[in-house]
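thought: user wants a sequence for this fold. calling inverse folding tool.
action: design(structure=
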């Protein structure tokens, strides 16, 4: 019995022990959960006493479990059991007391929030500016921040991201994680989840369900107060929700694809190539590698050339500099440079370290069509700006774009392809402010493309722009060649005996050479040829008859073969879809053209002697694009065109008003409107035809423009976008009166050297008194007239250029219906010029002011006013007010009344010096040679976007009324966007004499002042109509096809500028030093007078 009582007592003690430990274990679990959560949220470390306490709890737990096992196995005596139970209970009691942690669980210091990564020091102003912008975004408290660091391979995206990562670790309390994306993550979300989980020290190996893994990842992020996740080398859109990356986690990705940034909603930061100075600095740094390096001046010059061949790409610069480290032998440097001149990727280290990185971008392109289009860009010379439209026409001819689609759909697809290549950082965008769009291939990207085509399908031979004088040797024309580009060389002939065996050749580009003759045998074995481009071979006169047998030809391009007289019969080329005869000297349409039933693009612009027989055009029923010149326009052009129901683009130059009116009627009355047209009425032709707008009219030097009459009346298409009128005489004093009902969509308007125009548009007033009663007490306004003004076409105009308008008095005039003349300074109708972006006025000697009061110009970005000697103010002020007006009679609707009243406050109440002149988007203000200009505006000019101010020779201007924002200290500061204020050295005294309000305005603006040299008096006119002309070309040695354009321009200038008296002929200065113009003597009668000048000796 005693034994049983003892056993029963020990059982009670064991149960008490179990209960005590369960309470301790529960407290330990709570502490562990609490401390882990606090560590994740705050980044702080747990105290050592907490760590020790948890360790002791675990030790006691093991003691209790071991004791229970010994009791079950009866391996312990009752006496020993009692002692051990008492000891464990005592320890449990102590631990429970210690577990209150009155001083808290965590230390005040923070734990490591991610590991630092190895980084390279980043140099260069561009890089630092990009880093500063990204850092500023990260310091923003936005919870949804997503940043995309974009750029081509090897440009330094990862390096920038690593530096930002390490800076965050040191300077913020954020939890920072770095994950490099596996290339096959798009095939396995699970792999991406596992990679991110490792960064978080989270084990997902036992969880196979994707959604549950995502939930655990999301919870792990959520337990941390602030997180920044870096995902390096992202190639495709990542579904963050599916992976488990929650809202509130800041995200920074590096990628070569702008599409990835767009699809993931990232703010894009493009990593640009290094400037020449930055590139050389990096090259020298890596070449020296921290050691003293001494090289001869000759070696340094070659080293700079080697660095330049890397074209600003950091990866290439570092690779080349590393490979040449320690080399001081000039012969070795010269050898390396010669290798790079042939093909940068031909260098061993470049091919090993740089090529794979760049080629990865190509391999990730989606689909062979995109890859072929990319490779096609390598057919152009190095560093070439490629016209997007030209490239797309090649794609169409190659069949890379579906030829059966409409022209606009084909071009839309082409632009989509080029956009994708740009967003993949394989092409660079080169769109200019005038709307002309180009793309460009980085030199190393081009080398990579050529490397691909050396060994893989398709096989290319590219020797473009390398100065070839002869056709490549026959052994280079291998049987597997598919595309050959020899463009922009100096090849003069393809001699007899040259007959390359290239049965697979589909594209042959010989554009921009100096070909005089081509042997008939040359095309004998090119039966698969689809594209033959001989454009800009200005000396060739006759094409070989063997071209007639190229039955698979889809495009024959002969543009600007200036002397070309003969094209062989083309009747057998039934597959031909594009024939370009622009600028040739042919006299008749090649035989068989009317049989080309698949012809879609026929261009015969600038063919000054070509005549087309009646009925030829009407047979080409599949034409989508047609270009004609004045001599090639059939007499009854409208009848010929009516059968071309598929026509989408029409470009024509005519020399008589009757033909022009016929064409406009054709354009107006088509059931399906044309997508593009370029119509020119002129007695001479011009090559420099801006195609920035889809629907343009150019009217030059042909007759008078009237507002009524017989044949002089000419119409404009209703959907016109761009209008250029030069050298005309207007019988109406208002430009808009002539074209009132037309051109509602006009965006660009240039009026040059026209007489009779006093205003661009007018507001009509009905009145019972004479024009001398401007300040009388009563004026009646006809609402219908005002309503028409309000809907004037100039509401849509974005660019307005006014040059040499000798009678122009103002942009807007007001006229009384009783037959009185124009007055100026009236309030403009609401919406007038409301979309104007650029205004340029030059040589308008009767203008006294530019803008009328109340004119709203919310989109105006650039104002240029030059050589207007009577202008006294830019914004019309006191003289234009109606301060004596007592009675105003209106006949209009309420909506029209609102339009009339807008801005009238200024006119009724006279001068208001506090009335601001607000131009919210103005970036550039240029005032040049305005001898009577006294003020820009009476009040202040608010230009929050101003970047550049140029004021030259405006001696009477007293002040710059630029509004200066107030900084935090209550002091005026310069507009944030302002970059420079330019004056000449002649204007320094004027600058010092300006009146400033407040007085310290000058001190604020002085740091932005830039002083240039004395202004030179070049002719203010452009290319036409003055006695002297300066043609400045950007190329030191322009390729031959540029010369042919220049010669055609000189021919025009010689005719238009030839003086009626015996005064000396005009001189044309050219900025290139080439003795190459004697070749034009027979046709253009131009005599070379040295390397730098041409003199036109007579009319042509």
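)
observation: tool returned 1100 residues.
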């Amino acid at each position: 019995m005693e034994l049983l009582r003892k056993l029963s007592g020990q059982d009670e003690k064991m149960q008490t022990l179990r209960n005590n430990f369960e309470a301790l274990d529960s407290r330990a679990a709570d502490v562990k959960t609490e401390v882990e959560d606090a560590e994740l949220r705050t980044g702080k470390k747990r105290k050592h006493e907490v760590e020790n306490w948890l360790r002791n709890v675990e030790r006691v737990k093991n003691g209790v479990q071991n004791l229970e096992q010994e009791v079950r196995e009866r391996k312990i005596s009752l006496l020993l059991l009692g002692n051990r139970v008492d000891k464990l209970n005592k320890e449990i009691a102590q631990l429970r007391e210690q577990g209150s942690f009155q001083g808290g669980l965590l230390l005040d210091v923070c734990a490591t929030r991610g590991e630092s990564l190895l980084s390279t020091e980043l140099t260069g102003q561009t890089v630092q500016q990009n880093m500063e912008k990204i850092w500023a975004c990260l310091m923003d408290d936005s919870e949804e921040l997503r940043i995309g660091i974009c750029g081509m391979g090897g440009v330094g995206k990862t390096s920038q991201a690593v530096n930002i990562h390490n800076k965050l670790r040191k300077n913020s309390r954020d939890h920072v994680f770095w994950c490099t994306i596996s290339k096959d993550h798009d095939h396995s979300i699970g792999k991406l989840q596992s990679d991110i989980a490792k960064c978080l020290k989270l084990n997902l190996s036992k969880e196979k369900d994707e959604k549950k893994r995502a939930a655990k990842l999301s919870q792990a992020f959520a337990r941390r107060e602030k997180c920044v996740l870096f995902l390096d080398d992202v190639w495709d859109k990542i579904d963050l929700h599916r992976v488990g990356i929650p809202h509130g986690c800041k995200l920074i990705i590096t990628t070569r694809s702008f599409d990835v940034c767009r699809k993931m909603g990232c703010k894009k930061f493009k990593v640009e190539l290094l400037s020449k100075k930055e590139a050389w600095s990096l090259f020298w740094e890596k070449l020296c590698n921290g050691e003293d390096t001494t090289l001869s001046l000759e070696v340094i010059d070659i080293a700079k050339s080697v660095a330049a061949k890397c074209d600003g790409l950091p990866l290439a610069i570092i690779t080349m500099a590393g490979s040449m480290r320690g080399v001081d032998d000039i012969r070795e440097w010269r050898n390396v440079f010669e290798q790079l001149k042939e093909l940068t990727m031909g260098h061993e280290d470049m091919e090993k370290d740089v090529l794979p990185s760049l080629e990865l971008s190509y391999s990730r392109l989606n689909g062979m069509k995109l890859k072929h289009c990319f490779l096609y860009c390598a057919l152009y010379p190095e560093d070439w700006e490629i016209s997007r439209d030209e490239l797309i026409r090649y794609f169409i001819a190659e069949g890379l774009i579906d030829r059966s689609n409409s022209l606009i759909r084909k071009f839309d697809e082409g632009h989509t392809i080029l956009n994708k290549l740009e967003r993949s950082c394989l092409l660079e965008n080169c769109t200019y402010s005038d709307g002309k769009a180009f793309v460009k291939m980085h030199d190393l990207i081009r080398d990579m493309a050529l490397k691909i085509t050396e060994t893989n399908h398709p096989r290319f031979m590219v020797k473009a722009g390398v100065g070839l004088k002869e056709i490549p040797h026959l052994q280079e024309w291998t049987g597997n060649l598919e595309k050959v580009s020899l463009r922009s060389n100096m090849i003069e002939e393809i001699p007899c005996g040259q007959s390359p065996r290239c049965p697979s050749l589909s594209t042959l580009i010989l554009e921009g050479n100096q070909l005089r003759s081509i042997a008939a045998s040359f095309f004998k074995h090119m039966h698969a040829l689809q594209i033959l481009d001989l454009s800009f071979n200005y000396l060739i006169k006759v094409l070989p008859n063997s071209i007639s047998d190229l039955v698979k030809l889809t495009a024959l391009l002969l543009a600007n073969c200036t002397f070309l007289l003969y094209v062989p019969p083309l009747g057998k080329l039934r597959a031909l879809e594009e024939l370009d005869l622009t600028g040739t000297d042919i006299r008749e349409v090649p035989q068989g053209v009317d049989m080309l039933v698949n012809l879609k693009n026929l261009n015969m612009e600038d063919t000054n002697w070509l005549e087309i027989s009646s009925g030829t055009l009407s047979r080409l029923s599949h034409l989508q694009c047609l270009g004609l010149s004045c001599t090639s326009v059939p007499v009854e052009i409208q009848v010929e065109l009516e059968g071309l129901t598929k026509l989408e683009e029409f470009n024509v130059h005519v020399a008589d008003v009757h033909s022009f009116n016929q064409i406009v009627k054709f354009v107006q009355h088509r059931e399906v409107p044309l997508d593009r047209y370029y119509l020119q009425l002129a007695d001479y032709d011009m090559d420099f035809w801006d195609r920035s707008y889809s629907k343009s009219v150019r009217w030059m030097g042909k007759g008078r423009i009237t507002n009524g009459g017989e044949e002089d009346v000419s119409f404009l298409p209703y959907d016109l976008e761009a209008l250029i009128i030069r050298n005309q005489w207007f019988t109406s004093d208002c430009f808009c009166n002539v074209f009132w009902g037309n051109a509602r969509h006009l965006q660009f308007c240039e009026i040059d050297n026209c007489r009779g125009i006093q205003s661009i548009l007018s507001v009509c007033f009905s009145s019972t008194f004479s024009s001398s009663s401007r300040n009388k007490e009563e004026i009646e306004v006809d609402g219908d007239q005002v309503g028409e003004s309000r809907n004037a076409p100039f509401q849509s105009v974005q660019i307005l250029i006014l040059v040499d308008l000798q009678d122009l008095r103002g942009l807007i005039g007001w006229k009384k219906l009783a037959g009185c003349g124009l007055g100026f300074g009236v309030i403009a109708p609401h919406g007038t010029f409301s979309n104007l972006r650029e205004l340029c006025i030059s040589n308008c000697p009767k203008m006294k002011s530019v803008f009328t009061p109340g004119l709203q110009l919310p989109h105006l970005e650039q104002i240029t006013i030059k050589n207007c000697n009577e202008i006294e103010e830019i914004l019309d002020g006191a003289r234009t007010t109606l301060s004596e007006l007592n009675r105003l009679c209106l006949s209009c609707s309420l909506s029209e009344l609102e339009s009339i009243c807008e801005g009238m406050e200024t006119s009724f109440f006279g001068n208001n010096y506090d009335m601001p002149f607000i131009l919210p988007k103005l970036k550039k203000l240029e005032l040049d040679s305005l001898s009577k200009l006294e003020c820009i505006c009476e009040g202040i000019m608010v230009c929050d976007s101003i970047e550049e101010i140029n004021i030259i020779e405006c001696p009477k201007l007293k002040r710059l009324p630029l509004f200066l924002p107030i900084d935090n200290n209550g002091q005026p500061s310069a507009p944030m966007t302002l970059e420079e204020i330019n004056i000449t050295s002649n204007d320094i005294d004027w600058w010092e004499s300006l009146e400033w309000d407040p007085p310290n305005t000058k001190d604020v603006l002085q740091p932005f002042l830039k002083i240039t040299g004395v202004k030179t008096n070049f002719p203010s006119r452009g290319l036409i109509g003055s006695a002297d002309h300066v043609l400045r070309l950007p190329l030191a040695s322009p390729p031959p096809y540029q010369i042919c354009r220049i010669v055609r321009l000189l021919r025009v200038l010689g005719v238009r500028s030839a003086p009626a008296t015996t005064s000396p002929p005009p001189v044309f200065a050219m900025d290139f030093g080439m003795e190459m113009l004697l070749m034009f003597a027979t046709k253009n009668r131009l005599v070379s007078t040295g390397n730098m000048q041409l003199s036109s000796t007579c009319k042509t």
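thought: summarizing for user.
answer: Here is the designed sequence. The chain is about 30% helix and 20% strand.
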